[in-house]
Amino acid sequence: MVQIKTPEQIAKMREAGLVVAAIHAATREVAVPGATTKDLDEAARKVLADHGAKSNFLGYGGFPATICTSVNEVVVHGIPSEEVVLKDGDIISIDCGAVIDGWHGDAAYTAFVGSGHAPELIELSRVTEESMWHGIAAMKNGNRLVDVSRAIETYIRRQPRPATGEHSLGKFGIIEDYGGHGIGTEMHMDPHLLNYVSRKRGKGPRLVPGFCLAIEPMVSLGTPRTEVLEDDWTVITTDGTWSSHWEHSVALTEDGPLVLTAPDGGRAKLAELGVTAAPDPLA
Question: Residues in domain Peptidase M24 (predicted)?
Answer without folding.
Answer: 12-254
